Write a sequence for this structure.
């Protein structure tokens, strides 16, 4: 049996039966130690890739598609509902090809380039620094800007930071004013390159570490109220040597170091997002759950060099990655989004919540029309994906206190990538209200959960409500022009007993309970 403990006091019970799964879960709310789940764990990522920006976030003020000063209205309103805490831009691989001067000033005079990283699409730079930072202000989220190390210079990066954040009378700050922005923006997060081991320059960790020290010497903080957080380009998946080298050579000079982790098929072939068999379903869920030991290894390395907790870990790219939809540009990474993707998101969040001592931000790839997107657009149509609904259901955990849970599960053993637990649980508390997110990953078995908590027997008046996301077929997705197949519904299949709250979870379902 695989034991899922955050706190070990008394063993919970678990039974794997042929027809149904049963698990007892106890919440130790009296043992919560004040560890918070940062809202930035629910961050988003937007890259100049396919139709993430153009046709997704931005259509321009002259578009026939309803917009707010050029920002696509339906997408903007959907993202506003999610309470996005942070948005990363302009890449991704595009970041190290991006020269910020191309994207300022009158739009008709901006430089046009070929986006050679992603399909050779023409980039007219009509969405640049002002458009991005103004959007963040409108959404009420923190901007996370990725700077160009791969093909840029320290001077270019330094001047970009000055352009965005300086309130001085310098020529660079005056250029911003001339372009319509009097006061500087509050930019907190700044990435020093992206994937420096790959598309960001094919560097060694030693060489990148030296460049980080050089570039950050000149990326200064201009506003003492908003000191610049300088984020190092970190490892891909299991490259622990990259983290080790950066911690050894950069150390506390960085505010955070990133890691990227994708849960998807091997590019060779499990088909598109909605084309998979049972193995393909569990194979991906096991890869998603595999982020936990991966993060543990990276955190162990950071802990050795930084026992004081100065350097944060950002998972600033994560999500599923499938073969593109037939008939679309392979370089645009447009994929559908099924219940399988929703399960990946929910399982991943439940893991992130356990490690927020070190993990302070995560940014799913990507926000619109690319990879595991929140929304998909087609002309003037838009659909909300199952992953969108997970984010919306889970936003109750933002800036809430983490509550330890205790339970045992048998793993669903399907692939060599690792185990898929038969249940995943996470809980938090804010302003006296507890929220519990529970995932039943099994596509074939229902799961009965007996939930209790420290104050259960004395808390006779506790009111419990729930929301569920599930569907009859894990291949289902929400498509254009038809009623959505997957959307949250009120969950009622639970009852109080003398032992706890008995919850009947359908197969392949995600439930979020509110207890107050």
């Amino acid at each position: 049996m695989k034991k899922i403990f955050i706190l070990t006091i008394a063993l919970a019970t678990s039974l794997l039966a042929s027809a149904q799964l049963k698990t007892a879960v106890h919440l130790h709310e009296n043992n919560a130690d004040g560890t918070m789940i940062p809202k930035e764990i629910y961050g988003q990522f937007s890259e100049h890739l396919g139709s993430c920006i153009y046709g997704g976030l931005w259509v321009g003020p002259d578009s026939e598609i309803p917009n707010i000063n050029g920002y696509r209205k339906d997408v903007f309103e959907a993202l506003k509902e999610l309470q996005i805490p942070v948005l990363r831009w302009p890449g991704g691989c595009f970041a190290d090809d991006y020269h910020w001067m191309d994207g300022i000033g009158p739009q008709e005079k901006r430089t046009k380039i070929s986006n050679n990283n992603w399909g050779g699409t023409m980039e007219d730079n009509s969405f640049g620094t002002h458009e991005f930072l103004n959007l963040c202000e409108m959404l009420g989220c923190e901007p996370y800007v990725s700077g160009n190390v791969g093909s840029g210079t320290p001077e270019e990066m330094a001047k970009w930071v000055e352009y965005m954040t300086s309130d001085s009378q310098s020529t660079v700050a005056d250029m911003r004013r001339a372009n319509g922005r009097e006061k500087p923006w509050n930019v907190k997060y700044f990435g020093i390159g992206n994937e420096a081991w790959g598309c960001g320059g094919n560097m060694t960790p030693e060489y990148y570490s030296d460049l980080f020290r050089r570039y950050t010497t000149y990326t200064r903080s201009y506003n003492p109220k908003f000191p610049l957080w300088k984020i190092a380009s970190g490892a891909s998946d299991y490259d622990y040597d990259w983290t080790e080298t950066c911690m050894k050579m950069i150390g506390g000079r960085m505010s955070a170091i990133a890691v990227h982790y994708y849960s998807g098929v091997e590019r060779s072939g499990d088909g598109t997002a909605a084309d998979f068999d049972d193995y393909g379903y569990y194979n991906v869920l096991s890869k998603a759950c595999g982020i936990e030991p991966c993060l543990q290894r990276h955190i162990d390395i950071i802990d050795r060099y930084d026992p004081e907790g100065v350097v944060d870990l950002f998972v600033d790219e994560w999500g599923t990655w499938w073969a593109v939809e037939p008939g679309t540009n392979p370089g645009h990474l447009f994929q559908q989004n099924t219940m399988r993707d929703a399960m990946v998101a929910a399982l991943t969040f439940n893991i992130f919540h356990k490690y927020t001592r070190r993990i302070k931000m995560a940014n799913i790839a990507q926000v619109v029309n690319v990879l595991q997107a929140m929304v998909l657009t087609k002309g003037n149509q838009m659909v909300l994906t199952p992953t969108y609904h997970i984010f919306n259901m889970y936003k109750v955990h933002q800036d809430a206190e983490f509550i330890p849970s205790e339970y045992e599960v048998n793993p669903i053993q399907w692939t060599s990538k690792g185990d898929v637990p038969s249940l995943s649980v996470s809980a938090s508390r804010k302003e006296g209200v507890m929220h519990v997110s529970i995932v039943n990953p099994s596509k074939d078995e229902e799961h009965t959960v007996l939930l209790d908590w420290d104050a259960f027997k004395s808390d006779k008046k506790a009111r419990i409500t729930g929301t569920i996301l599930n569907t009859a077929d894990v291949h289902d997705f929400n498509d254009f022009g038809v009623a959505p197949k997957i959307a949250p519904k009120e969950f009622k299949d639970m009852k109080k007993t003398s032992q706890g709250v008995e919850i009947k979870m359908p197969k392949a379902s995600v439930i979020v309970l509110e207890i107050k």
